Amino acid sequence: MEVYKITGGKRLQGTIKVSGAKNSAVALIPASILADSPVTIEGLPEILDVWTLKALLEEIGGDVSFENGTMTIDPRPMIDIPLPNGNVKKLRASYYLMGAMLGRFKKAAIGLPGGCFLGPRPIDQHIKGFEALGAKVTNEHGAIYLRAEELRGAKIYLDVASVGATINIMLAAVLAKGRTIIENAAKEPEIIDVATLLSNMGANIKGAGTNIIRIDGVEKLHGTNHTIIPDRIEAGTFMIAAALAGDGMTIDNVIPFHVEALTAKLREMGVTVVEEEERIFIPKAPTLQSVDVKTLVYPGFPTDLQQPFSVLLTQAAGSSVISDTIYSARFKHIDELRRMNAGARVEGQTAIISGPATLQAATVRASDLRAGAALVLAGLIAEGETEVQEIQHIERGYSDLIEKMRGIGAEIRKEVVPDPTSSKEDSERSTKRND
Ligand SMILES: CC(=O)N[C@H]1[C@@H](OP(=O)(O)OP(=O)(O)OC[C@H]2O[C@@H](n3ccc(=O)[nH]c3=O)[C@H](O)[C@@H]2O)O[C@H](CO)[C@@H](O)[C@@H]1O
Ligand SMILES: C=C(OP(=O)(O)O)C(=O)O
């Protein structure tokens, strides 16, 4: 199995470049299904989720090329093949195939999505939206079947401001007859990015980025060229790395406004954050002060940075409290950080972290994407060599992490090590053979 090995204690310096946003990419790619000619998306991150979506579009007949971050998708040959299993289970965002295929074919059959386990992740608001637009939706053997005679605009109030439901309803509504209004819509920057692509394809969308989005359905959508926004969560991960172990680091290709909640918390801890137009400079941090953090929908502190940020809190003087109001069980990384000598415990939806602690290297497991990022960050400052296992979660969302980190002075490498589980099976098999 592949693992990351990190030798802690190296100081980080120089410039690190942020890739295109994962959570935009995974919606922009399915959005192309709605066009009647090729769509080109530039600046895509080279992450597993993007490769999996490419494979899914090919499964339904799309002609897709992906090179140097540019994907060109010809949606014309696509057909409405059911996708109940397989690749759809590898990522959360396969749910966008529901909205996009429903919009184009008026029917779809998509397996329930995978992605990180962070506590319950229902999709009831997506389904409520599809039904309001006129689709009949059934759940059969773990796959969602959607069918509509025609889609008609509707007023949809989201019980929770869900990113996925907001985008999925936009995808289903752009080719529907009449006006759709999404109330209590999510406001994340990725929603604006998807609305920008759809508008450039000919859609009529107003209000993306606010909590009321109005969509007037159009007859058809055409191909276009689009450049993706930078990944604010990757940028935030690097900002945290800079505060943890940096001797002056520049994070390049970032929209400072998108990471304002993190910047505010870093400043509260005593870290200097210098914002430029598309770059952020963080000098060597002084002694860090403890802070309390609560994750909220955008523009609040993002849940996706909660786990990486908790590593920084292990280095702050005093006790910090971090609460996740979006995902109740997003704390699997805490057990792993404890193995590394962090002073941390979980109480309900809250982690209590006391510091500063001298982290010690250990063999740890990435239970999910941002838990993995957190463990890499912990490895950067731990005494000794940390081994991070189950890195496929990390590679679902971080592009060229090893190369980027090495570029600023980290000692990190990917290695193949024997898998303890398979060696047990192998030895059992060979024992049976010998019997
Ligand atoms: C691919 C993608 O973009 N993933 C992001 C997206 O996930 P995702 O779109 O799955 O997250 P949502 O915004 O939908 O979820 C927010 C909250 O709403 C709840 N909920 C959601 C939908 C629904 O139908 N019913 C319901 O109750 C969820 O359980 C969660 O508590 O936003 C999350 C919150 O910013 C991020 O952590 C993920 O990185
Ligand atoms: C939770 C995340 O991703 P996903 O929704 O794709 O599982 C994430 O990016 O932190």
TrEMBL record:
Binding positions for phosphoenolpyruvate per the UniProt entry: K22, N23
SUPFAM superfamilies attached to this UniProt entry: EPT/RTPC-like (SSF55205)
Boundaries of every Enolpyruvate transferase domain copy: 7-405
UniProt pathway: Cell wall biogenesis; peptidoglycan biosynthesis
Places the protein is found: Cytoplasm
Enzyme class: transferase
Protein name in UniProt: UDP-N-acetylglucosamine 1-carboxyvinyltransferase
Organism: Chungangia koreensis
